[in-house]
Amino acid sequence: MSHDHACPYCARVFKWGKDDDSHLGVAAAGSDCGENAHWKLTGHISAEHPGEGFLCGRRGGGVYEVIEKYRDHWGVRDGYRNCSYCGSMHPDDLFAAIEAGTCQISGTDKNYKIYVDMPHPGVGQACIVSSSNFKFSDKAILLTEALCDEHGLDSYARAEYVGDWVEITPRGPRAHLKFYYQHFDAAQQQRFIDLYNEKKLPLEPQFGLYRKPYFFG
């Protein structure tokens, strides 16, 4: 689920739905984005923190004209830092989890991507796992503002799901994250190689890194 978006450079928090910050979303991405918390934050950073941020390595050609106005930044999702463009977790958080032994890495069929299972800091908190415009199961309930208050649901749930049938369940113990190798610098690439060669990566036991990273050579 998407959450409220906090500015990494000041104390402002931007919520989903129409509000006094909607003009920032419209300025950043057009009239359809006035209720989008991501674009509100993007417009805010462009206006109030010009020049901050970085260029995500996942961006393709033609981005350099855009990036001078809308740079990427580290947000938070499922309790961990993530890239505002591609959703990758932060490389420092990945290495910290490897060193602490609190994650498991699963390979993919891409040579630029892995999945990382981490402890979820919000375990037990209510979350929406399914939604529809009809009652699709015995557990489905019609979501109201009062139920959002009761379960502590965020502004995304209020903006997107009020009036829909949903299933609400306690959040599980693990966060399923992704990491894109394009967020490594040269030193971090070598550190990852060394950990692999030293058999210190907490790899999923059956398949491991069945597709090796593009920088392994």
Descriptive report:
The radius of gyration is 20 Å and the shape is globular. Helix 1 crosses helix 2. By secondary structure, it is α+β, with helices and mostly antiparallel strands. 28% of the residues lie in helices and 21% in strands. The chain folds into three domains: 71 residues, no CATH class; 84 residues, no CATH class; 45 residues, no CATH class.
Structure, briefly:
This protein has 217 residues and is an alpha+beta fold. Helices cover 28% and strands 21% of the residues.
Mean pLDDT: 93
- Tally of domains: 3
Which regions are unreliable across 5 or more consecutive residues at pLDDT < 50? none
Annotation field: number of helices: 7
N-to-C CA distance = 37 Å
Mass-distribution shape: globular
Spatial strand arrangement across the major sheet: 5-6-10
Classify the oligomer. single chain
Helix/strand-derived class? alpha+beta
Strand content: 15-25%
Major sheet characteristics = 3 strands, antiparallel
Radius of gyration: 20 Å
- Please count the beta strands (DSSP E, at least 2 residues each): 10
Series of secondary-structure elements, N-terminal to C-terminal: EEHHHEEHEEEEHHEEH
Helix content estimate: 25-40%
Would you spell out the secondary-structure blueprint of this structure?
Blueprint: E1 5-6, E2 13-14, H1 22-29, H2 37-48, H3 64-67, E3 74-77, E4 80-83, H4 91-100, E5 104-107, E6 113-119, E7 126-132, E8 141-142, H5 145-151, H6 155-161, E9 165-170, E10 174-180, H7 186-197
